Amino acid sequence: MLDVSLTTALVVFLVAALVIAVAGTFLARLADRLADRTGLGEAVAGAVLLGASTSTPGTVTSVVAGYSGNVDLAASNALGGIAAQTAFLAIADITYRRANLEHAAASASNLTQAALLILLLVIPLIAIHTPDATVFAIHPATVVLFVAYVAGVRMARRDRDDPMWSPKQTPKTRPDTPEDEANPRPTWLLFVVFGMLVAVIGVAGYLVARTGILIARETGIGETVVGTLMTAVATSLPELVTTVAAVRAGALQLAVGGIIGGNLFDVLFLSAADVAYRDGSIYHAIGADSAFWALVGLAMTGVLLLGLIRRQEHGPANIGFESVLMLVIYAGAVALTVAM
Q: Which of 87, 169, 239, 333 is the most exposed place for a label (fewest CB within 10 A)?
């Protein structure tokens, strides 16, 4: 916890958020170039490169909270982040004026990753109702989460390289094709710069999270509200910035894949927090208010998956039905959390 005044915390919060906005824009552009250089493709690169890097501050927050025994803060930070980031995708859809984002960013890999996210969200909910048995204070569900994630990402990569089906191409579909570079820099240099930006975002995101906690506590807000509405949103700022930047750069599959990939890592926050939590299974210590946000994440991901499958080309203001429903679900969940 930072030992500073409320005014100082507010200043640090705003400055760190500005740093995230600037660094996140460059991070999205680099991820798009690395997707072409490595052959991963935008969807997988978004899930692995952007998902992992932008989730750094959230991971740190959940691990620290878990180790210190703040179970609901650790869980609500992870699960609330999933809902917030999915809502950010709806915001990105609003910024893309040519068509519905989920229509233009058609990708088999993103479908696979969305289905994987639903599976990963269900595992902790099942774990809550299993015997409270651990090995070295780690519940078996933690291992299952890691194994399922690795297997799912490998499947998404295979679906990108050798898909068993392909989406219908329309004039509004934006295919994932490598772009020519006028002055290509060495790939290793791109990775070095990418790593430096990740470090900057990680530090800035951590400061946003810690000052957010201080601000929330000084104003008397409860721990679950802090986790879902303060730290979850604060540590998800990199996802918002990189997603909007990717959309503006035309890397649509990268934008969608980055959000879904970040959400996959958010579920893994629980695994990391379970390892850090030394008093047994963190899944059995999670309160009902925190588990509620896992259900919210499931609902929003289900709607997103429907949107990716349906591929509505146009809707009101060029946004799809899924974006409207995701924002409605998130707003309703926030209202219920504040009221509870």
A: 169
- pTM to 2 decimals? 0.81
Identify the CA nearest to 335 among candidates 232, 262, 229, 204.
Answer: 229
Quick one: CA dihedral 262, 234, 283, 121, positive or negative? negative
Query: Packing angle between helix 6-38 and helix 187-218, nearest 10 degrees?
Result: 150
Angle at 103 between CA 101 and CA 106, to 5 degrees: 100
Q: How far apart are CA 40 and CA 61, in angstroms?
A: 29
Distance of CA 94 to the CA centre of its chain: 18
> Each residue of 223-237: pLDDT tens digit?
677 777 777 787 777
Yes or no: say if 189 and 146 are a contact pair by the CB < 8 Å rule. Answer: no
Give per-residue pLDDT as tens, 93-125: 888 877 778 777 777 888 888 999 999 999 999
Which of the given ranges, 123-127, 187-191, 202-206, 256-260, has the highest pLDDT on average? 123-127
Residue 179 pLDDT > 60: no
d(CA 3, CA 214) in angstroms, rounded, equals: 9
Q: CA 217, CA 314: separation in Å to the nearest integer?
A: 43
Q: Which residue has the higher pLDDT, 140 or 168?
A: 140
> What is the SS3 assignment for 47?
helix
Q: Give the SS3 label for residue 138.
A: strand
Q: Which CATH class is domain 6-172+186-339?
A: mainly alpha
In angstroms, the CA 246 to CA 257 distance is 10
Q: Which residues contact 114 (CB under 8 A, 6 or more apart)?
A: 260, 301, 304, 305, 308
Q: Residue 16 corresponds to which amino acid?
A: A
Is residue 299 within 8 A of residue 329, CB to CB? The reply is: yes
Eight-state DSSP code of residue 135: B
Determine the number of helices (DSSP H) and then strands (DSSP E) in the chain: 15, 0
